């Protein structure tokens, strides 16, 4: 045993880095890494040099300076004295708003179109084919501009509503479709959590400062006495608040709404839905144990509706209908044409892609599944909902995530119709007024990166729940 | 070996990028054309005509500079820019100069690192509304929807004006003048606001200009002028003195009609002689040929001729000289002496 010698000691030679397979891959990786680092450092030093040549520094201080410009659609309070950072936040929220609206509508459209394209009805399936091919083969920007132009040119101006033979408001004088957008009623509260202002009986009254979710008309306004242009809403608000108002005497409560009200309502709504789901779960357990499913629908409806109605009554909710004021409709919720055009175009365009994904997902399920379901006596609709779609989801979800990300990033085309998203505020006006192109674009890129990562991580969580579980 | 070549190339590219933007004059001469940033289209100031040739008051400044530097007023590559893209285009070196009715402000000069070389139009921000609205003052615009070109000083002035007067408005941000015009005519906004000259130019292209009024309020000072990048003083001087030459030519009575006669031999007026290069060494001081100013004036005429031809009272735009008359006529146009 003692005669056994160690294997000959191999001294390490440099050539081994290339010729020895044990080290080669490592060498290549290290070299590639160095090259990448060099390229990056060149980019950075080039930027620094050019900035120095222009006499510019790299500084994010502009985010805390007053912006000086106004934004029409704002979900949080903002005026021209707010900071550039606040303007960026307003834009970011607008981007998120249109992304959520767009993803929801695109999903609905896509699923319907995808399922119907497989319909046995010749007309229906061909119509859906026309929709899909038409929308996904024409550039998105064209659709945005086209829808916007249609809405601007084909709908009446607000002042046309004043004429007797002009257009009239829809749905019981509560919805106005104009070439500046659609005005719909919104909810206001006479006992708002954000506090109500008490209007003085004089005509020079201050209007409610709305904030939070309903804040499409933010900021207070003082009507200019004797200018001949009344604001309209002030008189309407004080007229209609009389019945619901608790306070009386010297002034009347001006109904308003704040973010807290909506937070409470949403909270109650979600709690109700959670309760309803619990009831349904209990019912399923009972059904599995005894074979009989107790009636749950009235209990579920009650769980959701009763607390919601109670909260609305406690807050003193009432509908605030838009009323034609001086130049525009006042009150209610103003859905601007830019938002509607962008939302519809993004949804229709992405919906066409989602339709194809849904169709692919359904076709991926073996026909035997359908036949088996039919053999069990299920009807086609039930088969689709209970057998095919749940299985198709695991094929559909991963490409669907990409479409959601596409839609979110495509929303930066908003500038074409003047929708004030993050690209228009932070990446547009702010950059233009401060000259901070590099900083602004970096921040904008960072925002889209983070938003995309958040969306895809949420969707991945959902994907994990629907994907094939192997045990 | 390959890596060394690559690194060398990278380093060279880095150096080249670092040096870019230094000698604009050499770049322009080497290229043979002047890259000039203009609007995407504003009648009278800068817009392509039926043959696709750019015409206008701002275009005239570009052509004069090209004529002075390259000897050919047509050797200009016009780069249409919007309110949002113009500064980036200039800062990045995509264009050599910007003549796009751009307001000279403190922060643009110092913070954005540009060099305004002078003022070719003294303007102010105004409002235009349809006559049928019956508005007679901008202070009656409470609650109005206002179309505005985004990325401009007018955007900031507007916010200030409505805040100071404590009235409310709904801004509709729009990228170009053409889109703004379309939105305004469709009634998607009650008011269009921009520089008063721009309003006049826009109104001139309407089917029925008399159905629209420009409100009396001028809410800001908007001195418009050409600008170049900070840091290349020689180039800045060339653009500045080309503009001054156009203004001085009007003052001294040098027009495109009589300039050949005046420059044939020295005249009685030494100032005219120095301007036209028949006396003195002004051309070599600025790094150009002796007849640089003559070529610049020949390109489209002197300042007054440019004004009358493009935006003056006999054009559809119909702007009067007002503040833009020569100082000898009570205006603000005043060129430093050519000496």
Automatic annotation (TrEMBL), chain A:
InterPro entries reported in the protein's UniProt record: AA_ABC_transptr_permease_3TM, ArtM/GltK/GlnP/TcyL/YhdX-like, MetI-like, MetI-like_sf
Membrane topology: Multi-pass membrane protein
GO cellular component, one term: ATP-binding cassette (ABC) transporter complex
Record Pfam families: BPD_transp_1 (PF00528)
UniProt similarity note: Belongs to the binding-protein-dependent transport system permease family. HisMQ subfamily.
Record-linked NCBIfam families: HEQRo_perm_3TM
Name of protein: Glutamate/glutamine/aspartate/asparagine transport system permease protein bztB
From TrEMBL, chain B:
Xref: InterPro entries: Bact_solute-bind_prot3, Solute-binding_3/MltF_N
Keywords from the UniProt entry: Signal, Transport
UniProt superkingdom: Bacteria
One family name in Pfam for this protein: SBP_bac_3
Location of the Solute-binding protein family 3/N-terminal domain: 33-262
Statement: the UniProt record of this protein carries the keyword Transport: yes
GO biological process: amino acid transport
Leader peptide range in chain numbering: 1-22
Annotated family: Belongs to the bacterial solute-binding protein 3 family.
PANTHER family linked: AMINO ACID ABC TRANSPORTER PERMEASE, AMINO-ACID ABC TRANSPORTER-BINDING PROTEIN YHDW-RELATED
Name the record gives this protein: Glutamate Aspartate periplasmic binding protein GltI
Source organism per UniProt: Salipiger mucosus DSM 16094
């Amino acid at each position: 045993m003692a005669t056994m010698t160690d294997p000959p000691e191999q001294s390490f030679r440099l050539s081994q880095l290339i010729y020895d397979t044990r080290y080669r891959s490592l060498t290549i990786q290290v070299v590639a890494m160095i090259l990448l680092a060099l390229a990056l450092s060149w980019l950075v030093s080039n930027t620094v040099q050019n900035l120095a040549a222009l006499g510019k520094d790299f500084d994010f201080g502009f985010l805390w300076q007053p912006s000086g410009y106004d934004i029409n659609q704002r979900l949080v309070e903002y005026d021209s004295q707010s900071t550039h950072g606040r303007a960026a936040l307003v834009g970011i929220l607008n981007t998120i708003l249109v992304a959520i609206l767009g993803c929801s509508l695109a999903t609905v459209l896509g699923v319907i179109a995808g399922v119907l394209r497989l319909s046995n009805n010749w007309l229906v399936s061909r119509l859906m084919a026309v929709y899909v091919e038409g929308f996904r083969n024409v550039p998105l920007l064209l659709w945005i501009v086209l829808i916007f132009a249609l809405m601007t040119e084909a709908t009446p101006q607000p002042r046309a509503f004043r004429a007797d033979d002009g257009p009239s408001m829809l749905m019981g004088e509560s919805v106005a479709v104009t070439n500046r957008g659609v005005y719909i009623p919104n909810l206001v509260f006479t006992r708002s959590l954000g506090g109500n202002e008490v209007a003085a009986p004089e005509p020079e009254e201050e209007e409610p400062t709305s904030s939070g979710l309903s804040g499409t008309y933010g900021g207070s306004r003082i009507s200019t006495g004797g200018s001949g242009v009344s604001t309209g809403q002030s008189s309407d608000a004080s007229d209609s608040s009389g019945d619901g108002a608790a306070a009386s005497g010297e002034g009347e409560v001006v109904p308003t709404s704040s973010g807290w009200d909506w937070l409470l309502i949403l909270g109650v709504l979600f709690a109700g839905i959670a309760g309803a789901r619990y009831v349904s779960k209990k019912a399923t357990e009972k059904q599995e144990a005894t074979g009989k499913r107790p009636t749950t629908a009235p209990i579920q409806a009650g769980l959701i509706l009763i607390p919601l109605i109670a909260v609305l009554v406690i807050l003193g909710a009432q509908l605030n209908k838009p009323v034609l004021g001086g130049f525009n409709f006042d009150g209610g919720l103003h859905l601007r044409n830019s938002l509607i055009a962008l939302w519809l175009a993004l949804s229709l365009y992405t919906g066409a892609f989602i339709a194809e994904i849904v169709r692919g997902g359904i076709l991926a399920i073996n026909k035997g599944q359908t036949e088996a379901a039919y053999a069990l006596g299920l009807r086609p609709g039930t088969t689709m909902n209970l057998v095919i779609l749940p299985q198709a989801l695991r094929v559909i979800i991963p490409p669907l995530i990409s479409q959601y990300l596409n839609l979110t990033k495509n929303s930066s085309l908003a500038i074409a119709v003047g929708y004030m998203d993050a690209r228009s505020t932070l990446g547009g006006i702010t950059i233009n007024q401060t000259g901070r192109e590099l900083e602004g674009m970096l921040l904008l890129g960072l925002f889209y990166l983070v938003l995309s990562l958040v969306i895809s991580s949420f969707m991945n969580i959902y994907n994990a729940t629907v994907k094939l579980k192997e045990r | 070996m390959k890596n060394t070549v690559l690194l060398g190339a990278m380093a060279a590219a880095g150096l080249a990028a670092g040096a870019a933007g230094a000698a604009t004059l050499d770049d322009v001469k080497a290229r043979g054309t002047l890259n000039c940033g203009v609007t995407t289209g504003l009648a009278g100031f800068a817009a392509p005509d039926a043959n696709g040739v750019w015409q206008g008051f701002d275009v005239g400044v570009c052509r004069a500079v090209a004529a002075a530097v390259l000897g050919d007023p047509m050797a200009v590559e016009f780069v249409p820019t919007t309110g949002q893209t113009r500064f980036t285009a200039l800062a990045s070196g995509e264009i050599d100069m910007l003549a796009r009715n751009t307001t000279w402000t403190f922060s643009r000069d110092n913070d954005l690192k540009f060099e305004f070389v002078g003022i070719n139009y003294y303007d102010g921000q105004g409002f235009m509304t349809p006559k049928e609205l019956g508005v007679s003052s901008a202070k009656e615009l409470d609650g109005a929807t206002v179309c505005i070109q985004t990325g401009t000083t007018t955007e900031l002035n507007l916010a200030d004006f409505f805040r100071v007067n404590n009235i409310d408005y709904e801004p509709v941000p729009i990228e170009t003048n053409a889109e703004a015009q379309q939105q305004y005519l469709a009634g998607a906004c009650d008011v269009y606001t921009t520089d008063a000259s721009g309003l006049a130019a826009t109104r001139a292209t309407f089917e029925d200009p008399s159905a629209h009024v420009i409100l009396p309020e001028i809410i800001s000072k908007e001195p418009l002028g050409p600008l170049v990048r900070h840091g290349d003083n020689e180039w800045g001087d060339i653009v500045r003195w080309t503009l001054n030459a156009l203004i001085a030519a009007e003052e001294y009575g040098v027009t495109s009609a009589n300039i050949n006669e005046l420059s044939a031999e020295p005249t009685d007026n030494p100032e005219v002689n120095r301007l036209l290069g028949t006396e003195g060494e002004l051309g070599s001081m600025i790094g150009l040929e002796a007849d640089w100013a003559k070529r610049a004036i020949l390109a489209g005429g002197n300042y007054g001729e440019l004004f009358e031809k493009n935006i003056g009272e006999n054009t559809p735009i119909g702007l009067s000289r007002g503040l833009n008359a020569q100082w000898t006529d009570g205006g603000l146009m005043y060129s430093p002496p050519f000496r």
